[in-house]
Each structure stands twice: as structure tokens, then as C-alpha cells.
Design a protein that fits this description.
CATH superfamily of the largest domain: Naphthalene 1,2-dioxygenase Alpha Subunit, Chain A, domain 1
Number of strands: 17
Helix content: 25-40%
CATH architecture of the largest domain: Alpha-Beta Complex
CATH topology of the largest domain: Naphthalene 1,2-dioxygenase Alpha Subunit, Chain A, domain 1
Order of helices and strands: HHEEEEEEEEEEHHEHHHEEEEEEHH
Distance between the termini: 45 Å
Number of helices: 9
Strand content: 25-35%
Shape: globular
């Protein structure tokens, strides 16, 4: 007689508590996936730049004189001093250490006394580039020069976002808030990627924003697509105009593995999550809120404040408790609740996430072993 299939269990605790696994992720998953860098509105003029980090690497984006957005490692090719800090505008990139100077496109322009060096060919020297993609005005970087483009990683997401937020390419950030959480980045992302806990833990969200019974999450390439209907209008915590857009009465989210999510609240209000892993038990979540020409600024900021005071504050308590529990010798990973019909009380999205998590660590371990042979 065929034995019944065993339940699929959650990841072992070490995936969230072992610093060596985090180091493997930095050189594996985080170095070979599309990571949020910043917003195109930060680079409106030639010479505008901003810095960011991915997998421990210091990087920057800059708009060139040819009106292209380029990404570079933030390191001078002379003796490795960092070139720029924060954000700003420059006519040329000048290294603070020895004044080696680069064009905005990364090509070496010159340096003090370099003409005395026999055989020196400045045309051969250029800053090391990083792949950048503009995804609906949001700039993403990938340290892997051979990675597939974002539309292959996240099929359909770009067109769907433009349908839900028709003016997405004209949006500008009106608020970015950093929210530190004392947990592994994967704990925070798993919590975001299921609504099994919502009705019990998020009364404002589940009673005043969405209808939990209609909530579903489906994998879409390396994207997790959240969909649900808005709450009845008389119960909504903020006003919405259902006639504004065909999707105005819906909530939808596109989580782009591994660390970014576009989230559209009813009324076509776009906000974003960006996770930045600090170490194996600390993560900072950047919450972004956006508007066109500040036209709905007050509504958006009021919704952002409500979100921080309710859902975000509630989630911090949850994820930090989970991180403490993962370090307990009494924890044994339990079965995931996988409902064949999916829906709000199913964890099929967690199964997909944890498979990607396993693959990222396993592939890096295999790569490390083969490089040593």
C-alpha cells in the first residue's frame, strides 16, 4: 500500500540564525538577484548621483551627459578609495584620495602626473559597471552580469503595475521611512508573504482596508502576487473613488524576490517595501510612499501614518518574537498549511519562498565546493 505523503515542513531554524548561512546568501542570493537601488526621480539632471549597497558592495547610480542612467562600483581604479558619498550632483567624478578624475560615463579623464608613467593608457581604465534596469521608474541593480532581465524574472508584473497605477512613471517619493527589525530578513519577508495571520493580528488592515476572505497569493515567476478586494466602502478607514480606475476597488501586491515589493492599496495608492539585510538577525525595512506632483499628498501621508501605527507596529512584534523563538532549543519546524484551494489561510506562498531560500544557499555551497577542487 502506498504510504501517505508527509507534510512539507518549514525551514530549519539555522536558516534564520546561523551567520554562516547569511554570509552564503550575501555571496549567492543577494549578489545574483535584482535589488532595489533607488528611484529615477533622484537622477533628474546630468551628474545627479546616489549611493547604495548590495550584498556588502558599495555602489552608485549616476545620470550621464547622454541622459543614460549608469551604475558603478563605488571604488577608484587607482588605489581603491571610495569616490562619492550619499547623493548629490557633480560635473566630473573626482577621487578624494589622489584626484584621479572620471567622466560621468565612468571613463578615466586624467590624474596628477600620470603622463610620466611609461605605457600608461588612460583609455583602458574605466570604473567597474553594475547592471541597472529601470522598472516603472524604480531602479534595480544586479551584480550578476549574466542575470536574466527583470521581465523574465517577474513575468507580467510591469504591465500589471501600469494597469493598477497608470501614472506610475510620473510618481515621485514623498516619504521614505526606515523601520529596523530585530530579525532575519527572511523572517520579515515570510511574514509579509502570507495573510494567514492577518485577521488575528491586523484588525485595522483586515476590517478597514481589505476583505480577508478574498485574499490570495500566487507565484508568478519569482514574483508573489497578492490580490484581494477592498473592504465595504462604509467600513474603509480612508475614502476611495471606485470610478477612478478599473482597479480602484482592489488591493494588489507584487513581491519581487528577494527583497522588494510594490503594494497598491485600494484607490490606486502605491507604496513599497524594501528590505535591507544588516546581518543574520537584523534587517531594515524601507517603506516608501509616492504621489504625482503632491496632488494627493495629505491622503497618502495619512494612510502611511495609519499603516505605521497599526500593521507595521503589529508586524514588528510578530517577527521579533519569531526570531527569539527560532533560537529556542525547543523549536521543531512544523508542517506548512497548504490548502489545495489556496486562499487566505494557506501557506503555499511560504512553500515557494522557502524553496527559493534553500536554492540560494545550496547553490552557493555547491559553487564554493567546486571552486576549491
Amino acid at each position: 500500500m502506498k504510504s501517505p505523503d508527509l507534510p512539507i515542513r518549514s525551514l530549519e531554524a539555522r536558516y534564520y540564525t546561523d551567520p554562516q548561512i547569511f554570509e552564503a546568501e550575501k555571496s549567492g542570493t543577494l549578489a545574483s538577484t535584482w535589488q532595489f537601488a533607488g528611484h529615477a526621480s533622484q537622477l533628474e539632471n546630468p551628474g545627479d548621483y546616489f549611493t547604495f549597497e548590495i550584498a556588502g558592495e558599495h555602489l552608485f547610480c549616476i545620470r550621464t551627459r547622454d541622459d543614460e542612467i549608469k551604475g558603478f562600483y563605488n571604488v577608484c581604479q587607482h588605489r581603491a578609495h571610495q569616490l562619492v558619498q550619499g547623493q548629490g550632483n557633480c560635473r566630473l567624478l573626482v577621487c578624494p584620495y589622489h584626484a584621479w578624475t572620471y567622466e560621468l560615463n565612468g571613463r578615466l579623464r586624467g590624474g596628477p602626473n600620470i603622463q610620466v608613467v611609461d605605457g600608461f593608457n588612460k583609455s583602458e581604465i574605466c570604473l567597474s559597471s553594475v547592471r541597472i534596469e529601470n522598472f516603472c521608474g524604480f531602479l534595480f541593480a544586479n551584480l550578476d552580469s549574466d542575470a536574466e532581465p527583470m521581465d523574465d524574472w517577474f513575468p507580467g508584473a510591469r504591465d500589471e503595475l501600469q494597469a493598477f497605477v497608470p501614472d506610475i512613471d510620473s510618481l515621485k517619493p514623498i516619504e521614505w521611512v526606515e523601520i529596523p527589525e530585530r530579525c532575519n530578513w527572511k523572517v520579515s519577508i515570510e511574514n509579509y508573504s502570507e495573510c494567514y495571520h492577518c485577521q488575528l493580528n491586523h484588525p485595522t488592515f483586515s476590517q478597514g482596508v481589505v476583505k480577508p476572505d478574498t485574499y490570495d497569493i500566487q507565484p508568478q515567476g519569482h514574483c508573489l502576487r497578492h490580490t484581494t478586494e477592498c473592504q465595504n466602502l462604509d467600513a474603509m478607514t480612508y475614502p476611495i473613488d471606485l470610478s477612478a480606475n478599473e482597479h480602484a476597488g482592489e488591493y494588489s501586491s507584487w513581491f519581487l524576490w528577494p527583497m522588494f515589493s510594490f503594494q497598491v492599496y485600494p484607490g490606486n495608492v502605491l507604496n513599497t517595501y524594501h528590505w535591507r539585510a544588516i546581518d543574520h538577525e537584523h534587517v531594515v525595512v524601507w517603506r516608501g510612499w509616492y504621489s504625482v506632483d503632491n496632488s494627493d499628498r495629505e491622503t497618502v501621508l495619512a494612510l502611511a501614518r495609519q499603516d505605521r501605527e497599526t500593521t507595521v507596529a503589529e508586524d514588528i512584534q510578530l517577527v521579533e518574537s519569531v526570531q527569539r523563538g527560532l533560537k529556542s532549543r525547543g523549536y521543531v519546524p512544523g508542517p506548512l498549511v497548504l490548502d489545495p484551494s489556496c486562499g487566505v489561510k494557506s501557506e503555499h506562498s511560504i512553500r515557494a519562498l522557502q524553496q527559493w531560500m534553500r536554492e540560494g544557499v545550496t547553490n552557493q555551497v555547491k559553487s564554493h565546493k567546486s571552486s576549491r577542487q
